[in-house]
Amino acid sequence: MWIPLPERLQPWLVLIAGLLAVGAFAPFGYFPLAYISLAVLFNQWLSDTPRQALRHGGLFGLGFFAGGVSWVYVSVHVYGQLALPVSALIAVLFVLVLAVFPALAGYLLRRYLPVNGWAGALLVLPSGWVLAEWLRGRVFTGFPWLDTGASQIDGPLAAYLPIVGEYGVAWLLCVCAVLLAAIAGNRRRVTSLVLLAVVIAAGYLLENIEWTTARGEPIRVSLVQGNIAQADKWAPENLESTLRLYAELTAAQPDSELVVWPETAIPAFYHQVEDSYIPYLEEQLAESGTSLLTGIPVLDRETWTYYNSIIALNGSRGFYHKQHLVAFGEYLPLRWLIGDTLDALAVPNADFTPGKAGQALLQAAGYPVGSSICFEVAFARVINDSLPEAAFLVNVSNDGWFGRSLAPFQHLEIARVRAKETGRALLRATNTGISAIINHDGTIQSRSRQFEQAVVNGHVVPRQGATPYVRYGDWPVVLVTVFCLLLVRVRMN
Hints:
- The chain is α/β, with parallel strands linked by helices.
- It has two domains: about 5-210 and about 475-490, no CATH class; about 215-465, Nitrilase/N-carbamoyl-D-aminoacid amidohydrolase, CATH 3.60.110.10.
- Helix content is about 45%, strand content about 15%.
- The strands form three sheets. It has a six-stranded mixed sheet with strand order 6-5-4-3-2-13.
- Strand 8 (about 365-375), helix 14 (about 380-385) and strand 9 form a beta-alpha-beta unit.
- Mean pLDDT is about 90; it is low at about 340-350.
C-alpha cells in the first residue's frame, strides 16, 4: 500500500470508492471521480493478500454496480410488474454477478502477479482491470454497461476513443489512477506527475484531429418522441391513436429528409399493417420526399419466429433485425434447461430470434445507415460491423422501461461514446426520452426532455472513412494488456 489507510476503515473506503465512481457517469458527469475511486482501489490491492483483494474488489463492485445499475429494480418491478421480493432478489443477484468481475480481477492479480513496485503496478493493475471489463462485455452474452472508459466522454481522455476505443480509454484511465496513487504516496512523484501530464496533454492535442471526412451536404432530420406510457403502449385499444399520433407528428415536419421513430413505435406486427398503415405512410412520405426509419416487430409466418426490427421506408422497404437481444427481456437463456421454471414467477421474457450478422445496411435519405436497437448500442463490435460503409448511425430505443432512473442518461452517454469512436453522427430516437442528435465528435447537437412528447430537429453531416478503432477494434488493447501481464509474470520467474 502506497498510501497508508486504517485497517478497520479499508473495507468501507473501498465500498464508498465504488459508489463514488458512479458519479463519473451521466447524469452526474464528474469524470475525475473515476480517477480517484480507482486510485483508492488500486492502492488497497497493492498491500492485499489474494483473499483480501477478492473481498475488496467485490466490495468496490458492490458499491459501483448497486449504485450504477439500480435501475434494474425499476425495470422489473415497476414496469415488469414483478412482486417486490422477486424484483429485489433479481436486482441483488444481478449486482452480485457483476461484482464478481472486479473481485476475481483483484484475487487473480494478487495471486499470480503480486507486484508492489511502481513499474509493476503500472503494467499489472490497468491491464487486469481492463481485461475484467472486456470479459464482462462478452461472458454470458455480455453486459458492457458502466465500462469505466465511457465515463471520460467529457474529459481529456475522450480524444483517445477514435484510436483505441472505450477499453483503451479505460486502460489509460487506470494508468492515471495508478499515477495519482503514486503521487499521493510519494512513489516516484516527479516521474508520475510528468507521465500524468503527458497523457492528459496528449488528449487535448488529439482532440484537434479529424479522423473522418464529410461525405455530402447536411441532412435535415427529425426524431419523433411519442411519449406513450409503457402501460399503454401495447394495449390494443390504443393502437389506432398511437399510429395516428406518429403520422401527424411526422407530417408536421415536411422539410425533413429523414424522420426516425423509436423502437417498436408501431406496436403491431409488420404483417398486420403492411397492407394498410405502411402504404399510407409511404404515400405521405413520397409527397415530401422524406425517408422514415421506425421500430416494428416482424413475424416470419413460415417459421413462426419473430424479430425486434427496424423498417426503412424510402420508396422501397428494407429491414434490420436486432442481433444482440436482452436476456430475460427479449429471450430466455438456456430455455432448454430451465424450461418453464421462470414462467411460474411471471418473469417478463419473450422469445425473439436474433437477426443474423452481416445484414444489408438500410438506406435512408440516399445514404447507407448503421442501425442498432436499444441495448445494442453498448456493443461497439456490433456498431463497427456497419462501418466504414455507413454514413451515419441510428439507434432506436424504448427507455420507458427504465422510468425515472439513471439508465436513460447512461444510455445516452454510451451512444455518445459510439459516435466518438466511429467518427459518425448518431441519431437516437426513444419513446419517452432521451432522444438526441449526436455529432460525429460525441457532442450533443440537440436533445429532448424525458416524458414529454417532442420532435427533435437538426442536421447531420454524412461522413466517410474509418477511425483507427473502427479498423482494428478492441484486439490491439486486449493484446497489449495480455502482453503486459505476461511480461511481469516472466520477469518474476
